[in-house]
């Protein structure tokens, strides 16, 4: 007979209210594969349980190993932390000592700078004093040098004057070989005649000669010849020029005159100038150039 909807509803209600009947119906209508699922699920649960157990054991071992490693790492970190703390403490102590040393060095440097500044100031003061003393000494030396120059000039003048006096006193010894009856003259002896022929400056120039003498040559014993001589310790070109110029003025005034120079020595330039200008050189008894000098001893009036 056909099944109605109400029959199905009643069956459903009956199954809901009777679990055993519901199980039996389910077993009756469910396929074998479905019915085998609980056993499979149970086996899977057991397998998963065993696997999870193995995983848990493995994880436990790994956790245990990790904890041991972490413990070792923590111990190593602890040792490093302790070592770092000790190193830090030692470094701080070293830095403290370095800072103290730097502080002491800075204080010492400051003291040295202050002492150096004081020393520099004292040294500058001493140097200023020394500069003043040196300046005073230099001034005294300059005065001494000037005094010595003046003294040397005076000594040279005295030597020259002494040498002039020596030549004047011993004129016969120097010129006796070529002249006789020699007499040293003074300005008044020739003043009258030179004033008639020469200007005032020329007269003064002649009267400034070191020696003016008169004598006669061995070749012309009956005629007077005059001599104008410049005397120096060492005869130079200026001595030769003065003797020549003054002899020319004497000849201009009418006196036959020989130009001569005398001294202990003569420069090479002066010797050459004397040879070129016919000036007699009387050097410590040694006569040079007498013949040429004598040839010039002719006045304009007697020429």
Describe this structure in words.
With 303 residues, the chain is an alpha/beta fold. The chain has a domain at 172-295: Trna Endonuclease, Chain: A, domain 1 (3-Layer(aba) Sandwich). 72% of the residues lie in helices and 13% in strands. It is built from ten helices and eight strands. It has a six-stranded mixed β-sheet with strand order 1-2-3-5-7-8. The protein has a two-stranded parallel ribbon with strand order 4-6. Strand 7 (280-283) and strand 8 (286-288) form a beta hairpin. Helix 7 (200-207) packs across helix 8 (237-252) and helix 8 (237-252) packs parallel to helix 9 (268-277). It is rod-shaped, with a radius of gyration of 72 Å. The relative contact order is 0.05.
Beta fraction: 5-15%
Q: Which spans have pLDDT < 50 for at least 5 consecutive residues? A: 299-303
Number of strands: 8
Question: For the record, what CATH class of the domain at 172-295 applies?
Answer: Alpha Beta
CATH topology of the domain at 172-295: Trna Endonuclease, Chain: A, domain 1
The helix-strand sequence is: HHHHHEHHEEEHEEHEEH
Q: What is the averaged pLDDT score?
A: 82
| CATH architecture level-2 label of the domain at 172-295 | 3-Layer(aba) Sandwich
Helix content: over 70%
Cα end-to-end separation: 209 Å
Largest β sheet strand count, sense and barrel closure: 6 strands, mixed
Q: How would you name the oligomeric state of the polypeptide chains in this document?
A: single chain
Structural class call reads alpha/beta
